[in-house]
Amino acid sequence: MLLLLLLLLLLLLLLLLLLLLLLLLLLLLLLLLLLLLLPLLHQQQLLLLLLLLLLQQQLLLLLLLLLLLLQQHLLLLLLLQQLLLLLLLLLLLLLLLLLLLLLLLLLLLLLLLLLLLLLLLLLLLLLLLLLLLLILLLLQQLLLLLLLLLLLLLLLLLLLLLLLLLLLLLLLLLLLLLLLLLLLLLLLLLLLLLLLLLLLLLLLLLLLLLLLLLLLLLLLLLLLQQQLLLLLLLLLLLLLLLLLLLLLLLLPLLLLLLLLLLLLLLLLLLLLLRLLLLLLLLLLLLLLLLLLLLLILLLLLLLLFLLLLLLLILILLLLMLLLLLLLLLILLLLLLLLLHLLLLLLLLLLLLLLLLLLLLLLLLLLLLLLLLLLLLLLLLLLLLLLLLLLLLLLLLLLLLLLLLLLLLLLLLLLLLLLLLLLLLLLLLLLLLLLLLLRLLLLILILLLLLLVLILLLLLLLLLLLLLLLILLLLLLLLLLLLLLLLLLLLLLLLLLLLLLLLLLLLLLLLLLLLLLLLLLLLLLLLLLLLLLLLLLLLLLLLLLLLLLLLLLLLLLLLLLLLHLLLLLLLLLLLLLLGDFSEENTPWKFSSF
Q1: Confidence category of residue 70, pLDDT binned at 50, 70, 90
Q2: DSSP 591
Q3: Does the keyword Transport apply (predicted)?
Q4: What is the DSSP string of 202-261?
Q5: By C-alpha distance, which of 243, 311, 334, 255 is closest to 47?
Q6: 62, 359, 399, 495: which could form a disulfide with 53 (CB 3.0–4.6 Å)?
Q7: What is the pLDDT of residues 334-377, one digit of tens each?
């Protein structure tokens, strides 16, 4: 902005210098017009005097008078030549001004591009802030929401400021285009006037050359005493003098036209100076507005800092007050914090996906397919594990049934043993009674019965031992089945952990890809900004070179103006010394 203001001030100074040069040129043209009009007052007397000398055949006086007139016109021709050179230098100055305007237009276009890039960055930041505001609004974080609202207000102020700058640059661009068109118009008018002046100058030079040639012939004929040819040459000389008089009459008209053109140029320059002054005032007002906006931004940043400080103090107070509650509810808070972080992470992922959806669509589809395949595999594994669990449960139920049956058998065997024991006791009692009664045959029978009962008891004991062994084997099988169940449960847990790890890895991959794409975008924007800054530096160097050229041109113009003033003073002295009135001539022509 300051650079643009300095360039506009430079353009204003150049226009002021051009205005001063045009004023000097206008004064010189007025002096030249006076110098042309003063001899034209004497042209009628000069022609009458030349005609009288021709009739009286005063040839020497006629030659002297013609040489004096030729000397005056040669000085006038030299003065016109200097004036033509001055107009050419003015034309070069206008061309340099046009080049400076073109460079300013390029600089304005680069500034417009920079502003558009900054606007794009601000819009992206605004979009991100709006999404964060939406997240915080969903999560009901009021203090953070207030902070983000302040940041959003800051960005909106910056955006408004950039829009004002953009409008002002567009206005300046239009004004410079108008100035460029006006300078082109003036350049065309000045070229036309230069062509006309050059044409008249060439005609005047040609007539003076013819006049000089006729004077030489007149001198030759005067030396040879050829009266008839001498009269013819004198008539031709009069005709050439009449043509020269016509050209001298046309030349003041051309100078008047040049004066009008210069006045028009001065008016246009004054108008452009007025527009540039208005534009400078607008730039100064915009700078003041920028300062005010910067002050507002500083105040808002201070308020934001104070709010952050207040937020930190409140958080510390809350931490001090809720320390006991945190000790009691730490598990619940951890769960809520994890949920909160997961929600924030998902929302950020959604934002990144919205920004780069076109680039990551195919990748997301592939990742989704992989996830589906993994889920299907895991589901199949889970189904297999569930089937195994069901089979193990069925085996456990069968084992339990077998155990129950074995227990029933054991109970039956125990009952049989008890019965046998009772029978043995009864037999023993009978034997005791028979011993007491001394019945030998009965005692033998009873002994046989007792042996049978003992054998049965042994057999039952063997069966009981066998059942106990079977029961132990079933218990071992049950323990093995329980171990298998535990192993299956551990496998299930491992599969779930693997699934979670895969999901986390996929999420990390997505995040890394999105971060890489965002970094690429930021690098591209930074490269564009660097290129624009390099172009600005090149334009500044060109402007400095152009300024040096303009200063050299102004020095040349000043030297030419001094030269032209010296020529005008010399012509004025000649006109003041050469008085052709009737009192100062040594002859009388009243009879004529």
Answers
A1: low
A2: -
A3: no
A4: HHHHHHHHHHHHHHHHHHHHHHHT-HHHHHHHHHHHHHHHHHHHHHHHHHHHHHHHHHHH
A5: 243
A6: 62
A7: 555 545 554 554 454 455 545 555 555 555 566 656 666 666 66
* Number of DSSP helices (H) and strands (E) in the chain, helices first: 8, 0
The pTM assigned to this predicted structure is: 0.44
Instruction: Please write down the long-range contacts of 428-433, taking CB distance under 8 Å and 24 or more positions apart.
Output: none
- Which residue type occupies 193? L
Helices 142-224, 59-139: axis angle to 10 degrees equals 170
* Secondary structure of 136-188 in HEC code, one letter for each residue: HHHHCCHHHHHHHHHHHHHHHHHHHHHHHHHHHHHHHHHHHHHHHHHHHHHHH
Residue found under tokens 């082109």? 184
Count the helix, strand and coil residues of the chain and give each as a percent rounded to the nearest 5.
95, 0, 5
Token pair for residue 43? 């042209």
Using a CB cutoff of 8 Å and minimum separation of 24, what contacts does 567-573 make?
567/75, 567/78, 567/79, 567/82, 568/28, 568/31, 568/32, 568/35, 568/79, 570/75, 571/35, 571/72, 571/75, 571/76, 571/79, 572/35
Residues 261 and 120: their CA atoms lie apart, in Å, by 48
Q: What is the pLDDT of residues 384-427, one digit of tens each?
A: 766 776 777 677 667 666 766 766 676 677 667 666 776 777 77
Phi, psi at 364, each rounded to 5°: -65, -40
Residue spans per domain, the chain: 2-318, 356-516
